[in-house]
C-alpha cells in the first residue's frame, strides 16, 4: 500500500511539473506582447497602404497638371495663338498651372514624408513580430521537449503503479483512492513510532492497543485523519 502511495505522489509531482513549466507562463506573456505588436502592425500596414494610394494619387494629380501646362506652353511657343487677349489668357493660365503644380508638389512631398515615416514604423514592427515568432518557436520547442520527458516518466510510473495496484484487493484500492481524494493526495500513511505520518498526530494509547491487537491482514485507519494506517518496522506496536 505504501508503494502505491509513493508512486501516486511521484505521479502528482510529474503532473505539477507539467502544469508549472516556466515555458507555459513565458509563452502566455509572450503571446500577450505579441498580440499588441500584431495589432500595431495591422494598423501600420493599413496606414502604409493608405499613404501609398495617396502618394499615387498625388503623383497622378501633379502629372496631369504638368501635361496641361506643357500643352499650353506648346500652343504659346508655336505661335498658333495670335489674339492678344487669347495670349494673355493663355499666359495667365500657365501661371496658374505653375502655382497649382507647386501646391501639388508640396502636398506630394508631405505625403512622401509621411509614407517614409510610416514605413520605418512598419519595418520596426515587422522585425519585432518576427523576433516574437522566433522566440515563440524556441519556447514551444523547449516546452515540448520537457513535456515529452515528463510524459515518459508518467508512463513509466503508471506502469509501475498498475503492477502494484494489481497485487492489492480492488476494494482496498478504491477505498485508498477515495481517501486520497479527500486528504490532499495522501490516502495511506505509515505508523512511525506512535505517530501517523499522514496527519503527524500521535495516536492515543487506546488506539495503539487496538492496532497492536489487530490481525496482520486487517485494514487499519488513523482515528485522527481517517487515512489507511500501515504498520512498519518503525511502528511502536
Which features does this protein show?
alpha+beta, 237 residues
Explained architecture:
By secondary structure, the protein is α+β, with helices and mostly antiparallel strands. The protein has helices spanning 2-19, 22-78, 84-166, 170-182, 205-213; strands spanning 188-193, 195-196, 220-221, 228-235. A 4-stranded mixed sheet has the order 2-1-4-3. Helix 2 (22-78) runs antiparallel to helix 3 (84-166). The longest helix is centred in the middle third of the chain and has 83 residues, at 84-166. The two termini are 19 Å apart. The mean pLDDT is 95.
Radius of gyration: 42 Å
Strand order of the largest sheet: 2-1-4-3
Average pLDDT, to the nearest integer?
A: 95
What best-fitting shape do the alpha-carbon axes yield? rod-shaped
Order of helices and strands: HHHHEEHEE
Helicity level, as a percent range? Answer: over 70%
Give the number of helices: 5
Helix- and strand-based class?
alpha+beta
Measured between the Cα atoms of the first and last residue, the distance is: 19 Å
- Number of strand segments: 4
Amino acid at each position: 500500500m505504501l508503494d502505491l502511495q509513493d508512486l501516486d505522489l511521484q505521479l502528482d509531482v510529474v503532473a505539477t511539473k507539467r502544469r508549472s513549466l516556466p515555458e507555459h507562463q513565458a509563452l502566455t506573456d509572450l503571446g500577450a506582447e505579441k498580440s499588441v505588436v500584431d495589432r500595431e502592425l495591422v494598423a501600420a500596414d493599413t496606414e502604409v497602404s493608405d499613404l501609398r494610394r495617396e502618394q499615387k494619387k498625388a503623383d497622378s494629380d501633379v502629372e496631369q497638371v504638368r501635361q496641361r501646362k506643357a500643352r499650353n506652353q506648346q500652343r504659346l511657343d508655336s505661335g498658333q495663338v495670335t489674339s492678344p487677349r487669347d495670349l494673355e489668357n493663355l499666359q495667365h493660365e500657365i501661371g496658374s498651372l505653375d502655382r497649382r503644380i507647386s501646391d501639388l508638389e508640396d502636398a506630394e512631398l508631405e505625403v512622401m514624408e509621411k509614407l517614409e515615416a510610416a514605413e520605418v514604423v512598419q519595418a520596426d514592427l515587422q522585425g519585432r513580430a518576427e523576433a516574437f515568432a522566433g522566440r515563440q518557436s524556441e519556447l514551444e520547442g523547449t516546452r515540448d521537449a520537457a513535456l515529452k520527458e515528463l510524459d515518459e516518466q508518467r508512463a513509466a510510473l503508471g506502469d509501475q503503479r498498475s503492477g502494484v495496484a494489481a497485487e492489492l484487493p480492488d476494494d482496498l484500492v478504491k477505498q485508498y483512492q477515495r481517501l486520497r481524494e479527500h486528504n490532499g493526495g495522501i490516502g495511506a500513511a505509515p505508523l512511525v513510532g506512535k505517530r501517523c505520518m499522514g496527519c503527524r498526530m500521535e495516536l492515543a494509547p487506546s488506539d495503539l492497543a487496538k492496532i497492536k491487537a489487530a490481525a496482520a491482514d486487517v485494514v487499519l485507519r488513523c482515528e485522527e485523519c481517517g487515512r489507511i494506517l500501515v504498520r512498519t518496522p518503525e511502528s511502536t506496536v
